[in-house]
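Margin note: ligand = cobalt (II) ion.
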Amino acid sequence: MKSPRHSQPRAPLASADQPASGLPPLDQPWSLLGGLSPQTFMRRHWQKKPLLIRQAMPGVRPPVTRAEMFELAGQDDVESRLIVQGGKGSGKKAEPQWALHHGPITRNRVPKLTQPRWTLLVQGLDLHVPAAHDILRQFRFVPDARVDDLMISYASDGGGVGPHYDSYDVFLLQVHGCRRWRVGRIQDPALVPDMPVKILANFEPEEEYVLEPGDMLYLPPRWGHDGIAEGECMTCSVGFRVPETTELVRDVLVRLTEELEPHDPPKLYRDPKQTATPEPARIPVDLQQFTLDAVAKALQDPLALKSALGEMLTEPKPRVWFDLGAEPLPPGVGVVLDAKTRMMYDDQCIYANGESWRAAGADARVLRALADRRSLTAAQVGRVSDEVRAVLEQWLDDGWLHPSN
Ligand code: SIN
Ligand code: CO
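Resulting structure:
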């Protein structure tokens, strides 16, 4: 499966009217997007302006029941938070008080259902619940590299996380009960001081909508929003990842240095022209240049940088672990990626769960199809090379994928 270093990238096989994900055509109207095509949505709204979509998912049911959600919030491999809003506080400027508790939130820590103004949030529901993963998959008209997770919140009457903004795009899908959303551009980013949650001090909403089950609100980054439950309610948020320069540089450099092979023979600093120095503590300019050149050379390989990025983007989140599978791949079956598997590709490599494989030709095509579709049919598996089969067997063993019929 290893390919020559500079193999020619192939033209993509998927297109807007036939996405490789198996989703409907991207240039046709989608009811999920209120009759906009994904192409139009991306052009008009993505990162630009909000969109309210009535009945984006008619008849949607919560991907978990309230009881199942509370159960998940109590597990240590699930990220959860509980936010409880207290009384109006005291003093001249009476602000509501907020308390934040990090998970696991065991059942005895969850307030009474009749107590108003609290909310429980479970992050990464798609990793644990197939129905949540299915909801998230409908948003794969956005690159996987940008998708973060599906979060679910349960709120008692009046509950919410307070007026705030996020640094990422979000689709807020109402799945049970009603929630009143107030949204608006941020005029003043000041936060209420000394609060465990980020609450905008002077939020001035421009619009207000009550969302019912099936309704959805898209918000670009840095749009203020405040969602208050009207009676108990559940909301799913599809959140996106926003790579940030410092984090990208740090992660990519760590991976690059891990891959560095020592030179053989070692490339040692030499200074035959060094003169006798009157300033022994001064660092020689030649040594500085030697270091700059070595670092610049290590950064010069764009393929190594791209591989480091692919590995970083597919790295599973902390607290994610796979249940090992032991069986060899049975004959005549297809495969489906585990919901926790992150798989992506670029022109040279295939990336899965923080690792990379160089692939070209038919091997690359079938592995890219697996990444885009998250599954392969029995017929596709039947045609793979011995090398790809070995990779699939390994992933099966690691619990990264499973047999499917
Ligand atoms: C919530 O579901 O209560 C909060 C979601 C968000 O504001 O991003
Ligand atoms: Co938010």
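The pocket of succinic acid (ligand 1) is lined by residues 119, 153, 160-161, 166, 170, 172, 225, 227, 235, 237 (CB under 6 Å).
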